[in-house]
Structure formats: C-alpha cells, structure tokens
Design a protein that fits this description.
With about 325 residues, the chain is mainly β. The chain folds into two domains: about 120 residues, Jelly Rolls (Sandwich), CATH 2.60.120; about 130 residues, Jelly Rolls (Sandwich). It has four helices and 19 strands. It has a five-stranded mixed beta sheet, with no helix packed on it. A hairpin with an 8-residue loop joins strand 14 and strand 15. Pfam families: PPC. Keywords: Signal. This is PPC domain-containing protein.
Length: about 325
C-alpha cells in the first residue's frame, strides 16, 4: 500500500542516526515501472470513457454499483494520481449549485493498487483538488468541501492489474471536517479515545514538520489533529494502522513552529515519547505527499504511563 521509501532508516532500523539522514526524499514513482496503455480505438465510446462523455451524476446521494474500468482504455496518464493513473480509467461529472461537503467512497471490491481523484478540470490536473491512492483493497475515501461549480471524478489504477473489474462508487453530502487544526483538535483524554478511526480528507494541508521527525523531509498531506496534556516523565505512544494512503504521524509542542516536532513515524507510523515538560501536545495525522489523505486506525496509550517506576516516597506523595 505504501509509497516506496528508501533510506538508511529502513536498512538498519535499530541504528540511531541524525536528523539530516532521517529527512529522506521519497521517489516520485512507486512500486516498479508504470505501464502506459494505448487508448482504446473503438467507434462510439461508452459513457464514462473520457472527458468528452463522462457519466453525469444527477444529484446526491448517488450510487454506481458494479461499475468497471476494464475495456475503457488508459486515456489519461498525467494527473495527480501519479503512477496510479497508468491503467484504464473512468470519468464522472458532478455539478453543485451551492457550497457542499461531498463524501466519496470507491470500493474496489478486492482489486488492489487503485486510486480516485476529484478536480474542477477534466482530466484532473497534476495538482487536483483531492485524491487518494493505495495498494490495499480497502475502499478509497475523499471528503471535500466544494464551491458551486462543475467537478470531475476519475477512478483509475496502477496498471497491475491494468483495470478494475468491478467497483462500487457512493457519493453523499457530508459535514465539514471537524478537527483539521490545533485550534479544533479533539482532546484525547476528554473523549476517552484509545483506539479510533481517523480520516484526513477534507482537512486541508495545515502542518508539515521541517526537522525530519517523521524520518522523511516532509508530511505535506491533509491533516487531522488531536491533543493531550502530558506531565514531565509521562510516556505517550501512538500507532496508526490500516491506513489507506501514504500516512505519517507526529507530535508537536507548538503548532506555530514546525521545528517543535518532538516525535514521529512514517513507515511504520508509530512512535513513543517521554514528555520533557508539562503542557499540551498535539498529535497530527498527516500524509507524506502533497494532497495525500485517507483513513486509518489510531491506537494510543490512555492514560499515559509513567516513564519511571514510582518509589514508595513518590507514591505516598501522591496522597498528600
């Protein structure tokens, strides 16, 4: 599922190395060569085959069940989906008359290496409004708030296999994203959260650490933010699993200073941190690539455990 990542960090996982070595760049092309297929030369192309005749979505909610990209040709291969647009593709058109939060779910029904994108141009450009890709067969999910206008949705695949034999598309009107910034961060303790789903599509790209704390040089995707108050010596651990995109997680002490990232993880998305000062800490769920977003399952320690074994004197002091 993950974008191929190279670097010393994963060749020698137990070696502690400096920040500059951790801040690796990721390659632009994932998972081997991209196969570019020829556009199918057939008379009378079917609805959805290309931008000249997209499938028109009449309104929300909308479902297109048991659809396929097979036989439609690889008409578009220079989009924000990157190497995930090398297979056969299908296009939809959605027109909105008012500002709407749109939630789009594409279930590839067992097919791996799929992607979905939405943009206000057809085909989607290199910098589209939102996209999600992944190697697993998990559903791809987008949640975006859109102004009135006409938009285009493309479903595609990294060309192994070269097409999606069957998928379900569902589009509903949703609610604006709840916690994309530190100001709107969800309090983990107040909510009693220990294992919970995360979703970053629609949150916007608000944060990206600059000190390599995730192991790579950036985390430029869309964000979801959670907060927790820690006291000196407490241990806070977080792990993101089942993520449907190239995710990253990290911990900030000052949301206005990206150098304040004190811990993070990207492949794997996990870290453990011993608090060095009392205060609020901000757990950010992010994506490596610009615009990258998706879903995952976060597991954290709750409550945080003490870093030191309590002495009898310290225990007695707790009851004074």
């Amino acid at each position: 599922m993950k974008t191929a990542k190279l670097g010393i960090l994963f060749l020698i996982p137990l070696l502690v190395i400096g920040t500059s070595a951790l801040a690796n760049e990721k390659p632009d092309v994932d998972h081997g060569p991209t196969v570019v297929l020829d556009i199918a030369e057939v008379a009378g192309r079917a609805e959805g085959d290309d931008c000249s005749n997209p499938i028109v979505i009449p309104g929300l909610p909308y479902q297109d069940l048991g659809q396929t990209t097979c036989g439609r040709g690889n008409n578009y291969a220079d989009t924000c989906l990157g190497s995930y647009d090398g297979g056969e593709d299908i296009l939809y058109q959605l027109t909105l008359t008012s500002t709407t939060t749109v939630e789009i779910t594409m279930d590839p029904l067992g097919t791996t290496w799929t992607g979905i994108a939405i943009d206000d141009e057809c085909p989607p450009g290199l910098s589209c409004i939102a996209f999600q890709t992944g190697s697993s067969s998990a559903p791809r999910f987008l949640s975006v708030t859109l102004a009135p206008g006409t938009y285009y949705i493309m479903v595609d695949t990294w060309p192994s296999p070269t097409c999606i034999p069957a998928f379900n598309l569902s589009i509903v009107e949703g609610v604006p994203f709840p916690n994309p910034t530190c100001e709107t961060a969800i309090d983990l303790c107040a909510q009693g959260l220990t294992t919970f789903p995360t979703q970053t599509c629609g949150g916007g790209s608000n944060y990206s650490p600059t000190n390599g704390c995730t192991g790579y040089s950036q985390a430029a995707g869309e964000d979801a933010v959670y907060k927790i108050y820690l006291t000196t010596g407490q241990v806070f651990a977080a792990t993101l699993t089942d993520e449907s995109y190239d995710a990253a997680i990290y911990l900030l002490t000052d949301c206005s200073n990206m150098n304040s990232c004190v811990a993070g993880g990207d492949d794997p998305e996990t870290f453990s941190y011993v608090a060095t000062a009392d205060g609020w800490y901000y757990l950010v769920v992010d994506g490596y690539a610009t615009g990258g977003c998706g879903t995952g399952i976060m597991t954290i320690d709750m409550p945080p455990t003490p870093a030191e074994t309590p002495t009898w004197g310290r225990v007695k002091g707790m009851f004074r």
